[in-house]
Structure formats: C-alpha cells, structure tokens
Design brief:
The complex is a heterodimer of chains A (374) and B (296).
Chain A (H helix, E strand, L loop, with lengths): L2 H5 L7 E9 L5 E10 L4 E5 L6 H9 L6 E6 L2 E2 L10 E4 L11 H11 L4 H15 L14 H13 L5 E5 L7 H18 L2 E6 L2 H7 L2 E6 L2 E6 L1 H6 L4 H6 L6 E8 L2 E3 L5 E4 L3 E8 L5 E2 L5 E10 L3 E8 L2 E8 L9 E5 L6 E4 L16 H5 L2
Parallel strand pairs in A: 3-8, 3-9, 6-7, 7-8
Antiparallel strand pairs in A: 1-2, 1-4, 4-5, 9-10, 11-12, 11-14, 12-13, 14-20, 15-19, 16-17, 16-19, 17-18
Helix pairs in contact in A: 3-4, 3-5, 4-5
Chain B lengths: L1 H6 L4 H28 L2 E3 L6 E3 L3 H7 L2 H33 L5 H7 L8 H11 L8 H6 L10 H29 L3 H9 L4 H12 L1 H17 L1 H8 L11 H11 L3 H25 L9
Antiparallel strand pairs in B: 1-2
Helix pairs in contact in B: 2-14, 3-14, 4-5, 4-8, 4-11, 6-8, 6-12, 8-11, 8-12, 11-14, 13-14
The chains are: A alpha+beta (374), B mainly alpha (296).
Chain lengths: 374, 296
C-alpha cells in the first residue's frame, strides 16, 4: 500500500435498516417497511426503475429525508433522528452539486472548514485527495471551468476528504457520456477498493449495478425484489421483475400452462417438462436459446438487429415476443421459420400470478439468499 | 447582418415599431436632462422673458451654499441607511419565504402587494402610522411624553421617511431576491448539509454568494431609487421639515425651483445630482459588478 492509499482510508461502518418506511400521507407509501443489512465495506448498488423509491431510501440514510418509521443504525449508532452531519455519511450527487463560487480546493475542503479543521491540515488533505483523483492541476479553478468528468471527480473528492464511514452515490454517472461513464465506473471500483468505505450507489443502469456491486438490491415500488450478488441475480432472478430488469436484451418471459407433465405455449407447443399444473411464466435469456434443425419449438422472425459482435432476432411464437441473441457469424435465413430448443438447465420458472421464482423447478440449485427475501 | 436581414427584411418596420418608445424616451427623458444642463449655465427669469449666459456662476453659487451641502449630506445618509435596509429587510423576508415554513406561501403573495401603492399614498399612510398622538407610537408617547414626535424632532421625521421608503421597496426587492433564491438547486443545500453546514452557515456560504447577481441589482437600483423616489414621501409626510431636517436634495430642488422660482439654481442642482447618481452607478459596476460570479 502506498502512502496515498493509507492517507484516505475510512473506518467503514455497517448500515442496518430496521423496518424503515416512508410515506407522505396515509395513501402514498413510497417505501413500505424495509429490513436490510449492508455489510461493512460492502459496495451495494440499489437498482430500480424511476419512482421505485431508491433515491428516497438513500436520502433517508443520508438524513436529507426523515423516516416515517423504523430505525437506521450506522456503525452501531441509531441515527434516524440525527442531522446529516452527525451520521458519518458523505454523498455524491447526480448533478455534482458543486459550489459554483468556490474553487476546486475550496469545494473539497468545505466540510473540513465547517468542522473547524486548521488551514494547514485542510491544504494537506486537499492535496492528498487531489493527487488521488488526478485533480492536482485544477485546484484553483472554479467548477464552471471543468469538464463533466472533472466535476464528478471533485464531487467524489469532496465526499471522501472527510474519510466517511459511509459513501452514498445518487446516480452519479448519469450526466456523463457513455465513454466517460465507463471510465468513471472503473475509477469508482478502484477507489472503493482503496478507501474501503461502505458504499451505497443508487442507479437505474443495470450495467453500473452489475459491474460495481458486491451485492445488488433491486427495488420495485419500495419493495425489495432481490438482494444478492450480481452473479446470483443474473443466473437466479427471484422474480419476473428482476428477470426482465437485468440483462441486455432482457430475459424472455413466456406465458405457459402446465398439464402435470409438460409446459405448453398457448398454441400447444411443448417447451419444457415440468410436473406442475396451472399457469406459469417461463423465462429464458436470449443468449441461452439454441437454434437448431432438430428443435421442436417453432418461431417466426420479424426483425433482426445486427450489433456487430452478435445479432438480435426479434421473433414471435404463439403470439408472444421472443428475442434470440445469435453469436457472430451464424448465418440465418430470415425468411424462414426457425426451429429452437430451450436447454433445460437454462430455464427459469416463475409463478403465474405473483411472478415469484419457483426454486429448483428444473433441478438446478437456487442460492439460499433468494429465499431469504421472498 | 446578412443572416439577420433575411429574417427581418423590412427596413422601415423596425424603425416604425421603435418610434413611439424612442419618442417617449427622448421627449420625457433626454430633452429634460439636456434642458437642465443647459439652464445650469444660464440665469433664467422666474416668469420667462429671456435668459442670460452666466457660465459657471450658478455652480459657484450652489456649491458655496451651506444649505446645498446640508441637503447633500442628508441625501447620502438617507441613501446609505434607507437603501441598505430596503435590501436587507426584503432579503430576510425572502430567505424566510424561501423555506417551506408555515405561512410562507401566503406571505410570498402578501409581501408583493405594496408594489401596487403609489408613493404619495404610502406617505399619507405612514404619516398616520407614525403620528405621535393617534399612530403606533401614541401609547408609548403617553407613557414617556416627548419620546416620539416627527413634527418637532428631525431624527424622528428622518426615521419615519426611512421606514416608509423601506416598506415601499419591499415588494420589488423581495421578488427579485426570492427569484434568486428559488433558482438555487436544492441539491446545493443538501450538499452543504452533508458537508456539515447548519442553516445559518448555509445562508452565508451558499445562499448569499449564489444570489450575488440579484443582490447587486437590487443595491444598484436602490441606491439610485432612494435618491429620487423619496420625493413623494417627503412631500406627503414631512414637507421637508421640521426645520429642514428632511430636506433631501431632490426635495430642495423642487422647493428652490417651484416655490423659490430659482430656476437656474434648481437646474444646476439637478445637473449635479444627475452626475452624482451616474458616478455612483458607474462606481458600483466598476468595483462590485466585475467581481460577481454569474455562473451557476
């Protein structure tokens, strides 16, 4: 470890949300009671569509929103009634929220100044953080003279300079262009490894979630749909919602009916063997579908998208959309009807009504954590 | 020009549209200004009938008049106190109204109402409010006789003027400053809160620096306004008294010109006042305006 690595290193704190709930009035409940533990030093990404309550959750941890009920415990301390400054959290905002009238150095040192840290120490800490983030040459500039990526770095510097136990990110990359977003993602991951603060990162971008997170917490209308590692979420989604949210293009969900031995599409085609009766939803990822001559499932090609590395076929079977990802180089006659087969091990089965995953439907082991949050 | 002329090809239409406004400005602003400067070099007969060029004699006369300097001193004191208060009071109200505290919505509405009242009406109302016998101070006067009487005490009269001026200045400055405060992104406060700054600290470190353009605007306008618009208030509340203690320059000009029929003296003082106001605004822009950060 270099000197810089040890200079800014937080004492990471565990975050426990115990029955935390938020509602603006009797009718509008943003977040029903949530119980979740974010482990020390863990990088948690809170993922969900807009309006799912993920930013509200973050603001409640930060202390910018009051909780309507429940407890927030950070590092063993109940903080839900404390001011933001007493919670030991720092935050990076979506629009950076830098002070436009202060220089980069002043922006980063502001929290230290408020806390009464001496001028000499402030300068020293600013120099350390600036070096770490590659901002040393910009310290006397105003935010208006910086590029988007530089501003984002200043915002991060401002957050980490106090060595907070908890780092909160509110969609910090969404204002950046694609290339910069990728670079910043890599930098953030690197930074997290160095600083080690417990991090909570809110986003609606599944790529950010998959690449950054130790664990992803997927929110849907304030409910936790699933809280697990990116791998587990990808391979064993706990619900149709998660299955459709993760993966690009998202998982195909087919409405099927079980007769006690096989699952059939509406037009009678058998797609899988399963000893259950009633309505189910069957999931298969576009890249898991096998296209072969002997396949028993027929589908009609409607449209193809060539993405260079692979090709997406939009097809229709039994009046339901089915996307297929074809690897590069496979020639397909787009006028014909395709024959497919679904590898049993790659199928996901969900309950017809609730959309909840049915564990071990086709004999594969689901991780325990899926059950935990059902 | 070429790219614009393809959009606006008429030659005479713009001129025609501008004409009424230009005519008004020239007729009621530039001509009188020029006239005042012109007359300040002449000795005018009070009832017409020719004038005589006297060079700088008018200026010599006015500048050696103790009354002129006294009125100028009072004008400067009024300008500093009244315009400072006329910005600070609306600023406090705007900061309060900007927060979502109780009653802030109706307050935002009500605080704009004085804008609709003419200066003379405000004067009449304040003359009544500060009346030593029946006004607000009446009960205090009953307890401590002689405590408050703007009719006798020049300081009391001056305070009454300042109060009336500040009150009449609230709506405009309040609206400008509140607009400035409302345009600060809420995440700025959240960031400051995360940085540990309490509400008071946020006012001085975030809000005030970010509404500098609005503060500057209100100060520049107030400084010039306080010199000229106070006329209606003086005329209705104090009439320049008691003992000339509220005779500011703008009122003295009126008295000299239209009661004393010293048209040349009044013109000369007008010219001096105009130059003073212009210099003041220029200084403000030169020394303050350049430092203001308009970036958001």
């Amino acid at each position: 470890m270099t000197a810089i690595d040890t200079a800014i290193r937080a004492a990471a704190a565990e975050i426990d949300l115990i029955g935390v709930t938020k509602s603006y009035d009797a009718k509008n409940t943003i977040i029903p009671p949530i119980d979740v533990t974010l482990r020390r030093g863990e990088f948690t990404v809170v993922l969900g569509p807009s309006g799912c309550g993920k930013s509200t959750l973050l603001q409640m941890i930060a202390g910018l929103e009051r909780v309507s009920g429940g407890k927030i415990v950070i590092g063993g301390r109940e903080v839900q009634d404390l001011e933001p400054k007493h919670r030991g959290c720092a935050m990076v905002f979506q629009n950076y929220a830098l002070y436009p009238h202060m220089t980069v150095a002043e922006n980063m040192a502001y929290s230290l100044k408020v806390a009464g840290v001496s001028k000499a120490e402030r300068a020293e800490r600013v120099a350390t953080v600036a070096k770490m983030l590659g901002l040393a040459d910009f310290l006397t500039r105003k935010p208006g003279q910086l590029s988007g990526g530089q501003r984002q770095r200043v915002a991060i510097g401002r957050a980490i300079i106090r060595e907070p136990g908890v780092l909160l990110f509110d969609e910090p990359l969404s204002n950046l262009d694609a290339q910069l977003r990728h670079d910043m993602r890599v930098e953030l991951a690197e930074l997290h490894r160095r600083i080690g603060a417990t991090s909570v990162f809110v986003t609606h971008d599944q790529v950010e979630a998959m690449t950054l997170a130790d664990r992803i917490l997927i929110l849907n209308k304030g409910h936790i749909e699933q809280f697990d590692t990116p791998k587990a979420i990808y391979h064993h989604p706990a619900s149709v919602f998660v299955a459709k949210f993760i993966g690009s293009p998202p998982m195909n969900i087919l409405q099927v009916e079980g007769d006690g031995s096989v699952l059939r599409l509406a037009d009678g085609q058998a797609v899988a063997n399963y000893a259950g009766k009633g309505k189910f939803q069957l999931g298969i990822r576009p890249e898991d579908i096998a296209v072969n001559e002997g396949g028993s499932i027929k589908t009609e090609i409607r449209y193809r998208e060539d993405l260079g590395s692979h090709e997406i076929l939009e097809t229709k079977t039994a009046e339901q959309n089915l996307r297929i990802a074809m690897p590069f180089g496979v020639e397909i006659d787009t006028t014909q009807t395709l024959s497919l087969s679904f590898p049993q091990a790659r199928l996901h089965l969900f309950e017809g009504e609730s959309g909840r995953a049915i564990a071990n439907a086709f004999g594969d082991a689901q991780p325990a954590s899926v059950k935990e949050y059902q | 020009m070429s790219s614009e002329s393809s959009l606006f090809s008429h030659r005479w239409l713009p001129a025609l549209l501008l004409a009424p406004l230009l005519l008004l400005i020239v007729l009621f602003f530039y001509v009188p200004v020029f006239q005042a400067f012109y007359w300040s070099f002449f000795l005018e007969q009070p009832f017409g009938g020719g004038s005589e060029f006297v060079g700088l004699q008018n200026f010599q006369r006015v500048l050696s008049d103790a009354e002129f300097w006294a009125a100028t001193g009072r004008t400067v004191i009024f300008m500093l106190t009244a315009s400072a208060l006329a910005v600070v009071v609306p600023l406090m109200l705007a900061i309060a109204a900007d927060r979502k505290i109780g009653m802030s919505y109706p307050a935002r509405n009500i605080l704009v109402w004085p804008k609709g009242i003419a200066g003379a009406s405000i004067g009449v109302v304040f003359a009544f409010i500060f009346n030593p016998f029946v006004g607000l101070m009446g009960p205090l006067n009953a307890l401590f006789p002689g405590l408050w009487n703007p009719g006798i005490d020049g300081t009391d009269a001056f305070i009454t003027l300042v109060a009336a001026h500040v009150w009449s200045g609230i709506p405009f400055n309040f609206v400008i400053l509140l607009a400035g405060l409302r345009s600060i992104p809420p995440t700025m406060y959240q960031a400051a809160a995360m940085d540990g700054a309490g509400p008071w600290r946020r006012i001085f470190d975030v809000q005030l620096p970010l509404i500098m353009p609005q503060l500057f605007l209100t100060f520049v306008l107030e400084f010039t306004e306080s010199i000229t618009s106070v006329f209606a208030l003086i005329d209705t509340i104090t009439g320049g008294g008691p003992g000339g203690s509220t005779t500011l320059l703008v009122y003295k000009i009126y008295v000299d010109g239209f009661r004393g029929f010293d048209l040349s003296g009044a013109s000369t003082q007008t010219a001096i006042l105009m130059v003073f106001v212009l210099l003041l605004a220029a200084c403000q822009f030169y020394f303050l305006g350049r430092r203001i950060n308009y970036e958001r």
